[in-house]
Amino acid sequence: MTFKAADVPLVDIAQRNTLRLIPTAYFKPPVLRALVDNDKELSALEQLEAYTSRRLVKSDSMDDFDRNRFGRSHIEAAFTYNRKGGNRFSDETMGAWYAGFNERTAIEEVAFHKSRELSFTNCFDEVGQYQGLYASFIGQFHRIKKGGKRPLSLHEDVDKGYPAGQALARDLVAQKSRGLIYPSVRHKGGTCIVAFQPNVIQDVLLGPKWQITWDGSPDWTAEAV
Length: 225
Description:
Number of helices: 4
Radius of gyration: 18 Å
Distance between the termini: 41 Å
Strand content: 25-35%
Oligomer: single chain
């Protein structure tokens, strides 16, 4: 079944502490801080960087984005750097912020995609560390309900699910949707959220670090570090 925006109802939510996991290689303190003596000088350098940084160049979706809060660089990165082929609800032309409603869901989603990446080389020897970022959401969001017939956008096969999901996302974004809540495809019973607008991502806080290990097979283990 293919969903259009009209098939997805709006719901009011107040969801705290959703979890996004990012590789620790991409979680670093501001590189400019070591070049200055105080926050005022850092602010001046950041303004200069903004003129040339792809991440910091304002797009239409970031015109009113509050840059003076923790986590802003990670939010900007999520809306700037896109995976080739896109993700389930974002194509190569649009960024988005994905998160799980709990740790298990976030881990299952990240581990699936990394396992799929490793399968391309058939080399399952990997230890990855991921930094958790908590974020809260409040307001009206579209929601694909659990139960009933599963829409094509939630198909387990990415070659089938992603084109349908990206088409639905474009339809929702055209209607100024804040984001979409949907059942996790990789964690049965889990729930995910994708934010289409950076300003709806609130109260970003550091979460736990997780290490995910592949020891010669697609099976993986995860532990807090």
